[in-house]
Write a structure and sequence with these properties.
The protein is about 65% helix and about 0% strand. It is an all-alpha fold. The protein has a domain at about 270-475. The chain is globular.
Length: about 500
């Protein structure tokens, strides 16, 4: 009985933290209304945000009042996982309400759009040509906060030294400073600074101010939501594309690596294994795909290189911006894009995918094993990789964890592709679209649309959520909730 009482107390803490995050979501829902004085003709859409905001703040306050002794309590990784999963689930529902209340989207479409926003995917069922500035900004705000991490943003001021479980449950391992609260604030400072710099650069390059804000957020968060149907291609500007490429690369780099770079430790930055692997992938993929595939589609060498760099950086960084369509791309180019989308961005960054760090470790493990067969049996080796914090000696357990995650990721990918195939889509298109969903990329070959079957949108929605929250966290959190609920009801 003592254990049951302690378990209930822990869940009061969990519910309290979720409530705190929901209060933050309620305040966030009011942020798009800041542009109403500029776009006064959209005044009638205020209530679409005010009603959900009031509702979620009230619910959050009630849940927050359940929390006791929060300052002394230390969150475990399992409890952090439960908080993150519950908070994301509720946040998505309340974030979808403005779309539903305005009559723009039905329930399935609204949930899809909200999940795409918070997971920084960028797949969309919204017609941007008919959507108001308030709603376009709301999509970007979701991507801004989702890129930094919902838990990191909402609890950055109160997470304290006891919130490591919550921090790690968000998929974060990039503890920049010894104190978690200071790390989260530093992440937000770096992130916001980049967004502001990107906005200014876009304006200088000739992009309208509203578009600049939205595209800077989308590029840094590797989100990909655009205010234009043709995405970045609508501007047909080399300067804008170059700025976008830089922002996408910045967004896909680990925040801890950014901290190393900002401290002026340039040599240490370029020694980081994940960074070297990212540049290797791009330097290998861009020339190969450009020469064998894109050269057949675009006349000049300049255009081939321009398209190749932009599209492949967009795929690897899981941003999802594009300058051209993919309808006439051959199988080799599409396959190359799929591979890069599956690999994804850096660990501890705003990007999604399997993550470059995991793929890098698996390849290094293969090399280490081959070397092990060639070396004398009595030789003792200490295998390590360079990470932002310094040398990291890789253990067999670490490799096993990464391999298990990769296996789970690919099984999920196969299931998603299978569901799209059952709905009549070609194999190539199905592989591309679900790689984009699961990797939170946002590129599309046309499957994702308002007319897409509900089962397709829900499959992609689940894929986006799993891809953003890390499979292990979601599954373990669900298993713990079920186990604890059964135990509590059994001993009532």
């Amino acid at each position: 009985m003592l254990y049951i009482r302690q378990l209930k107390e822990r869940y009061q803490l969990v519910i309290g933290y979720v409530g705190t995050m929901l209060i933050g979501v309620g305040i966030t829902l009011l942020m798009p209304l800041l542009i109403i004085p500029i776009y006064r003709n959209e005044l009638n859409e205020i209530w679409c945000f005010v009603i959900p905001s009031i509702l979620v703040i009230i619910i959050g306050y009630i849940m927050r009042s359940r929390m006791k002794h929060s300052e002394e309590a230390t969150l475990t990784l399992q409890e952090g996982g439960i908080i993150v999963v519950l908070a994301w689930f509720l946040t998505v529902i309340f974030s979808a309400l403005p779309f539903i209340l305005s009559g723009q989207l039905n329930f399935t479409q609204a949930i899809f759009e909200a999940v795409s926003g918070w997971t920084t995917t960028g797949l969309s069922v919204v017609d941007v040509t008919k959507t108001s500035h308030v709603f376009l900004l709301w999509r970007s705000i979701m991507q801004f906060l989702g890129g930094a991490g919902l838990a990191v943003v909402m609890l950055s001021a109160i997470i304290g030294p006891h919130g490591l479980g919550l921090y790690n449950a968000e998929g974060r391992s990039d503890k920049l400073l010894p104190n978690i609260a200071k790390s989260t604030k530093l992440i937000m400072t770096i992130y916001t600074g980049y967004v502001l710099a990107g906005t200014v650069l876009y304006i200088i390059a000739g992009m309208p101010w509203f578009d600049s804000i939205n595209h800077s957020i989308a590029a840094l968060s590797t989100g990909g939501f655009s205010t234009k149907t043709e995405s970045i291609g609508a501007y047909d500007s080399v300067a804008i594309e170059l700025i976008t490429i830089i922002l996408m690369l910045i967004g896909t780099i680990n925040f801890a690596a950014h901290y190393v770079l900002l401290k002026g430790e340039i040599k240490k930055f370029f020694k980081i294994g994940e960074i070297k692997f990212m540049f290797f992938l791009l330097s290998f993929a861009i020339p190969i795909v450009s020469y064998f595939s894109l050269s057949k589609l675009f006349g000049s060498t300049g255009k081939v290189i321009r398209v190749g760099i932009f599209e492949l950086v967009s795929a690897l960084s899981t941003t999802g911006f594009s300058t051209v369509g993919y309808g006439d791309w051959d199988n080799f180019a599409i396959f190359g894009m799929i591979i890069l989308m599956i690999i994804g961005g850096g660990a501890g960054s705003t990007a999604g995918g399997l993550k470059q760090y995991r793929v890098y470790i698996m390849l290094k493990s293969l090399i280490w094993d081959i070397k092990g067969y060639l070396l004398p049996k009595n030789v003792i080796r200490q295998n390590y990789v360079n990470r932002p914090e310094g040398k990291y000696y890789v253990t067999k357990n670490h490799i096993l964890e990464i391999s298990n995650f990769a296996t789970l990721y690919m099984i999920t990918y196969a299931i998603g592709v299978g569901i799209l195939l059952l709905n009549g889509y070609p194999l190539k298109d199905s592989m591309f679209e679900f790689a984009s969903s699961l990797g939170t990329v946002g590129l599309s070959v046309g499957i994702t649309s308002p007319d897409a079957p509900g089962i397709v949108l829900w499959t992609e929605t689940i894929g986006m959520m799993l891809g953003r929250l890390e499979f292990i966290v979601v599954f373990f959190a669900a298993m713990k909730i079920i186990k604890d609920v059964k135990l509590i009801f059994k001993n009532r």
